[in-house]
Specification:
4 domains; 18 helices; 63% helix; five-stranded mixed beta sheet; alpha/beta; 11% strand; two-stranded antiparallel sheet
């Protein structure tokens, strides 16, 4: 795409070469006039060269803009504004004779026209326009279902002051514009009393609309955990993506995708608590192994920050392994085992549990995150090396 854009924009400045050739071919009767104009032409050539140099920088910078499915999302008015800026920047360096000013205005007009044509030729599928609010409608398959009212009013206030900076992405269907990305801006814009909104119109098929809406929302990370899990599952079920492919598309790790999908195994009542933000996803994930009644009861008990992760994990462990809990209550450790347990906790930097006596038993090492696991792994490797 960068090569195509580079070639397209480079051709836009060819008008300067044409104008220079035309000026050189003119016949002047008066030698003094000829001399003066030639002198002015050297200034014009310097002006042209600087414009060419700046246009290359402009081309390179423009290629670095966001690219979405092979089409650049941009406002053509920004492109023309940048071109005008180049011309205005160097206009003072050209001597103000009538012929030079005429050439400048011709160059400016031709450049604007060529930029407009190039935009349409290179990106026919992408246009930006002001669309009436009455013609905009949300996408029914939008993965985001919940919008915080307070956050919407804050955004609406910002829009009143600064307007909508990032245009809405939509597809024109049956005289309406279906919003693919930007429904939150649309809702806030309505609250702000806008009559029209800036819209980038895309030519997406129904299948592409759903895929783009899912990926765009996942990349923005503004979905709640259940909405995220549902969107990922749709990408896998509808489009046949693997978990690795989804991870690459949205910039997350494969384990993160797996853990997010596990949330969909929760009971509906627990899912609702997570959706409303009353129960953390990490706590809910630990409850998946519990039977329905126990899961719901523990979720309600732990909601609204009333329990820590360790407290939840302890209850879950007691529920799924009651025999371990009985042994803990009936068996007391010897002084030697207690001392060894304390030493192990200090060395491994985590909780150590011992069940048994001096003849036989079990030792449990707890880890609560990747850092804990890596530390235990490193210590085991050190012990292995010492044995060898």
């Amino acid at each position: 795409m960068s090569k195509r854009l580079g070639r397209g924009l480079s051709s836009l400045f060819a008008v300067y070469d044409d104008d220079k050739n035309n000026k050189k071919s003119k016949h002047f009767d008066d030698d003094n006039t000829q001399k003066n104009i030639n002198n002015n032409t050297s200034y014009s050539n310097d002006f042209d060269n600087k414009i060419d140099e700046e246009s290359q920088d402009f081309t390179i910078g423009y290629v670095g803009a966001d690219v979405d499915n092979g089409a650049m999302s941009y406002d053509s008015s920004d492109t023309l504004s940048t071109a005008n800026g180049l011309l205005e920047k160097y206009k003072p360096q050209v001597k103000t004779t009538e012929s030079i000013n005429d050439s400048y205005e011709t160059q400016k007009t031709n450049l604007e026209q060529k930029l407009k044509v190039a935009n349409e030729e290179m990106y026919p599928e992408t246009t930006t326009k002001q669309v009436s609010v009455s013609l905009l409608q949300p996408y029914t398959d939008q993965p985001r279902k919940n919008f915080d009212p307070d956050a919407l009013h804050e955004l609406a206030q910002s829009i009143k002051e600064h307007g909508i900076i990032q245009p809405i992405i939509a597809v024109e269907k049956d005289g309406k514009y279906v919003i693919i990305a930007g429904e939150r801006r649309f809702r806030a814009g309505k609250l702000a009393g806008l009559k029209t909104m800036p819209v980038i119109v895309k030519n997406y098929t129904d299948s592409e609309m759903r895929e783009v809406a899912l990926i765009e929302n996942l990349q923005r990370e503004d979905l709640n955990p259940i909405e995220t899990a549902t969107a990922i599952k749709q990408l896998i079920d509808i489009y046949g993506f693997t978990q690795d492919e989804v991870a690459d598309k949205i910039g997350k790790s494969r384990p993160s995708i797996t853990n997010t999908l596990r949330l969909l195994n929760l009971e509906p009542e627990v899912l609702t608590l997570v959706e409303k933000g009353r129960l953390q996803a990490g706590l809910a994930r630990a409850m998946i192994v519990l039977p329905r009644e126990d899961q719901i009861a523990l979720a309600k008990k732990a909601s609204d920050g009333k329990m820590t992760a360790r407290e939840v994990e302890k209850i879950v462990q007691e529920k799924i392994s009651p025999e371990l809990n009985k042994k803990k209550k009936t068996e007391s450790l010897s002084l030697e085992l207690i001392s060894m347990k304390e030493d192990m906790q200090q060395v491994f930097g985590t909780k150590v549990s011992i069940i048994g006596n001096n003849k036989k038993g079990r030792i449990y090492l707890d880890y609560y995150n990747q850092i804990d696991l890596d530390r235990i792994f490193d210590l085991v490797n050190i012990l292995k090396q010492q044995q060898n």
